[in-house]
Amino acid sequence: MPFIALLKKEVYRFSTIWVQTVIGPLSTALLYQLIFGHQLSGIKTGVPGVDYASYLIPGLVMMQVLLNSFGNGSSSLIQSKYTGNIIFILMAPVSAFSMYMAYLTATVVRGLIVGVAVFLGIVWFGHLNYSQIWAIFYFAIVGAAITGGLGLIAGIICDKFDQMAGFQSFVMVPLIYLSGIFFNIQHFSPLWRTLAMVDPFLYIVDGFRYGFIGDANFNIVGGAVFVLIFAIVVNGIGLGMLKRGIKIKH
Hints:
The protein has ten helices and no strands. The chain has helices at residues 2-15, 18-39, 52-83, 86-91, 96-122, 133-157, 161-177, 190-196, 200-213, 220-244.
């Protein structure tokens, strides 16, 4: 089955460099937790009974899920385009839908694997009650699907690695870092809080953290519906671009 074959190829690609794809994000999260969780331990989270170290854990896990989901699809496509071996995939008897879904599934798998590794590495720094398990899985999967789709769109559009780096540095990283990973959005000034509310990653992080501590800044059902619609739109655009062969078929 073409979908399974391409999915295996993508999973094998990132699993063979596990030191880079798993240990790297884990070490970064550990440093964030050791530095911020310790030095800023006195900061009030705005959630009764939840200290800053515990508040930070879900944010750091989701940050790595989002960044690695984006990086997987984008790097795979642009490497294939750069080396020219994308032609072998295009010549194979695989539909655009199967091709896109294989790439997207692989990005979600990598994001979740990294998320689990990061969680196991830093969970010992705090105290979580896991009050809403469904929210943990839901927002992790949908969040990975969103950034995975954005990564595939970036991989389709970009021709060079520096273009990809620019997209990640000036679009993805600011949106992810301003989504409430390190802080409670309610501590923002009214202007910045209003601006932050248009960031879809804000609802992903808020919903994911809700699964661990049972407290959220926004309506969970509304946030769940919003991010699901956003995921469908983003991946619909990505699939449409792949079907049309934009910057893929020359």
